[in-house]
Design brief:
CATH topology: Thiol Ester Dehydrase, Chain A
Number of helices: 3
CATH superfamily: Hotdog Thioesterase
Distance between the termini: 14 Å
Order of helices and strands: EHHEEEEEH
Strand content: 35-45%
Structural class: alpha+beta
Largest sheet: 6 strands, antiparallel
Mean pLDDT: 96
Number of domains: 1
CATH class: Alpha Beta
Amino acid sequence: MTEPFSVPVTVRGYEADTQGHLNQAVYLNYAEHARWSLLQAAGIRQADLLAKGVGPVALETTIRYRRELLAGDEVRVTCEFEWGEGKTFRIRQHILKTDGTLAAEIEAVGGLLDLTTRRMVPDPRERFKELAADPALFGL
């Protein structure tokens, strides 16, 4: 099994809350950054999606906080797509400290929205295959 796609992130001081640890909302920003980085690494730019009349949408997100993160911490944010049947897919992500400690688990349910009809694309897996220069990054 190959390692999941990941991006490095340094926790910035202004992202800390009054207790000195990473603000809970910023975990979502890190997850979103990793997802868009994966799309770009696979050869899909935001402009490409718009040109094809589709856009990714988040339908549900769950975060499990495991260990606190402090300003200056270096982390790696992973991103793995899990495909099923139908209009949705899952994205599993981990935020890991440099020593491998799991700081957070993020699980999301997403879809691909047809921007004209405002309806979910019936088979997002096939659309990602068509759009990506490197569909293997999506597990395809």
